[in-house]
Design a protein that fits this description.
Elements (H helix, E strand, L loop, with lengths): L6 E6 L4 E6 L2 H7 L2 H12 L13 E4 L14 E6 L6 E6 L3 H8 L3 E5 L6 E6 L2 E6 L8 H12 L5 E4 L2 H4 L7 E3 L3 E3 L4 H7 L2 E6 L11 H16 L2 H8 L5 H8 L20 H7 E5 L9 E6 L2 E4 L3 H6 L9 H14 L3 H16 L18 H12 L4 H5 L3 H8 L9 E2 L2 E2 L9 H9 L28 H18 L9 H12 L5 H21 L11 H5 L14 H15 L10 H7 L5
Parallel strand pairs: 1-6, 7-12
Antiparallel strand pairs: 1-2, 3-6, 4-5, 7-8, 9-10, 9-12, 10-11, 13-14, 14-15, 16-17
Helix pairs in contact: 1-2, 2-18, 2-20, 7-19, 12-14, 17-18, 18-20, 18-22, 19-20
Length: 600
């Protein structure tokens, strides 16, 4: 098979064993790779209604057909599992070199199952896997753990996906970190590692190549697309600024979460924006085979530190009232070392401050801590309390939805999640496209499934109208489902036509635009089926009460809420466009048949 190795590495931690098996070719045919392939295996192998933190859950890492090739922006990969935060499907992405090395070692897919009897880490090799003792690493942060494992492997260029104390302590939004630079952040994949006593997955710097159907034709296509599509004005912002450019865009549009989602504007936005990032930049770095190199290392007082992305600049910055870039970066690196998703963490810390302001929590409840905005000391101390589950941190480590259940009904008005996943950094009261995108996202409150804000609050559509938003959201979800199956980064605004152009010389098969659209829609329906069997219904495709009831304060979106009636009408329109029952959200039999969704 061109572009594929045809091999799956399956590791059972309960039996300390592994085996190499053939990949399910029918799954490749229908889902291509990446997101689609990983989620199809998840549906097949993880039983319904299991506890995501039990040995029955699995960690699945798929590559895409373009992984390891020179295709631009093709170096990303997901960790696929059942989320311990939401009980939904979870595919959490990163741009590290792990998947490329995995492909070069000879594997299209990695599956980790069971639970080790003691802390362990896995070294993936060309011959299978070596399960090593990680007792000496348990309790260490992600940065130190990565350094030690690289020393033990005697390869400083190895990739090490590791968890920190948060993952070990089963914080439900714990993340997985590679070398302190790349993070599989959302959905609690780090907690799944921890539940398996798995400290890390490591692989040495294997070098290789991917077998292509037409190598010269593929090279020419890559050169053409890079010149004509990747390095164009609509994509170059990623190279010149990266995601920090969105700080000003969001502030000006009135959708930048500030002070615990009370406002969509932040008076100190210019202290944490792209200009401040550029001033502090010491160097840039890139994910594999990326000509844009959006990543940055900052320098403060001779100290080098990873630059926060937009979501972190907002959720650990404006949302917490932090007024300078250095403090945001410091808070973010603490979160990364502890091993927590900065989106969920920033949301929960902001939630804590709001509950204190509303006198729902007291200093006694907070072990003597006095929450306040723009306090790096408070943010760091609260982060540690959550990671180590100390005091109130034990409740907050469960995620905002479960925390509300433990704190009491009065806290409900400040809850900010969809399906249990904390909202990211676009306030939906100022971008109704994102309101629908959050509500219908298969993994909960996610901005990446459909980045509708680009078309309404940042674009030409009316951000305060649901007209056209159902189709916009559906089309983006389907497009991204196929993009993330190839796998192509969001920073290349690739089209179905671009993807078909790449696949023809790569695989020796000509995909039509219509065929790729159907595969994308098939994948989206697959995730719906998974979530339905976990008990999710139409009532779960909604926003937290605050978005419907509490108006934003200040800025362009002052006084805005999401109108509930119009939202519900748009949701019904979305279901109709998808061929799902409008009252329940269940896919109709004829829809699944038309799309060829194979779930038997």
């Amino acid at each position: 098979m061109y572009c594929y190795t045809g091999r799956v590495l399956r590791i059972n931690l309960s039996t300390s064993s592994f085996r190499v098996e053939e990949i399910r070719r029918e799954f490749i045919e229908r889902y291509i790779g990446g997101r689609g392939l990983g989620l199809r295996y998840l549906l097949e192998e993880v039983p319904p209604r299991i506890d995501p933190l039990s040995p029955d859950n699995k960690i699945i890492i798929p590559t895409g057909p373009l992984t390891g090739t020179i295709a631009p922006l093709s170096g990303r990969f997901p960790i696929v599992t059942k989320s311990p935060l939401t009980n939904t499907v979870c595919d959490s992405y990163s741009g590290s070199f792990f998947a490329v090395k995995m492909k070069y070692a000879g594997y299209d897919l990695l599956i980790v199952e069971g639970r080790a009897s003691k802390p362990s880490y896995i070294e993936i090799t060309e011959n299978g896997a070596v399960i090593r003792d990680a007792s000496h690493l348990w309790g260490l942060g992600t940065l130190e753990s990565s350094r030690i494992i690289k020393e033990e492997l005697r390869d400083e260029n190895s990739s090490v996906l590791t968890i920190g104390p948060a993952g070990e302590n089963l914080v439900r939004f714990a993340c997985v970190v590679d070398s302190g630079l790349w993070v599989n952040g959302r959905g609690g994949v780090g907690a799944v590692f921890g539940s398996k006593n798995l400290k890390a997955l490591a692989i040495k710097n294997y070098k290789g190549e991917v077998k292509l159907y037409d190598p010269e034709g593929f090279k020419n296509t890559v050169v053409e697309l890079t010149r004509k599509r990747v390095k164009t004005a609509e994509n170059l912002w990623a190279q010149t600024d990266g995601t920090p450019i969105i700080v000003d865009l969001s502030h000006n549009a009135g959708v930048l979460p500030s002070y615990g989602f009370r406002s969509g504007s932040f008076e100190y936005h210019d202290k944490i924006n792209t200009e401040r990032v550029k001033e502090a930049t010491a160097k840039k770095y890139a994910c594999p085979f990326c000509p844009l190199a959006c990543k940055r290392i900052l320098k403060f007082n001779n100290r080098l530190i990873k630059s926060p992305e937009y979501e972190t600049l907002s959720m650990m910055g404006s949302n917490l009232g932090v007024r300078n870039l250095k403090d945001v970066a410091e808070a973010a690196i603490v979160a990364t070392d502890l091993g927590m998703d900065t989106i969920s963490l920033g949301s929960i810390i902001g939630f804590t401050v709001r509950l204190y302001e509303e006198k729902i929590l007291s200093e006694k409840d907070l072990n003597g801590l006095k929450p306040s905005w723009n306090s790096l000391d408070f943010i760091i101390e609260m982060s540690k309390m959550i990671a180590y589950r100390r005091g109130i941190g034990d409740k907050m480590a469960e995620g905002v939805r479960r925390a509300v259940q433990k704190i009491g009904e009065k806290a409900e008005k400040e809850r900010l999640d969809v399906k249990g996943l904390e909202l990211p950094a676009y306030d939906p009261r100022g971008t109704y496209g994102m309101a629908l995108a959050y509500a219908t996202a298969d993994r909960g409150g996610c901005h990446l499934r459909a980045w509708a804000v680009a078309s309404d609050a940042f674009g030409e559509m009316d951000p305060y109208s649901f007209t056209g938003k159902a189709k916009l959201v559906k089309d983006l979800q389907d497009l991204n489902s196929i993009k993330w199956s190839l796998i192509i980064c969001d920073f290349w605004l690739s089209s179905y036509e671009d993807m078909a152009k790449l696949l023809k010389p790569a695989l020796g098969r000509e995909y039509s635009v219509e065929e790729l659209k159907i595969i994308g829609e098939r994948i989206w329906n697959l995730t719906k089926i998974f979530n339905m069997r976990e008990g999710f219904k139409r009532i779960d495709d909604t926003l937290p009460p605050k978005m419907f009831e509490q108006p934003l304060r200040g800025g362009k979106t002052d006084g805005k809420v999401v109108p509930r009636r119009e939202f519900e009408e748009s949701l019904s329109e979305y279901y109709k466009l998808r061929g799902w029952d409008e009252s329940t959200g269940i896919p109709k039999e004829e829809t699944l048949k038309k799309l060829g969704v194979d779930i038997s």
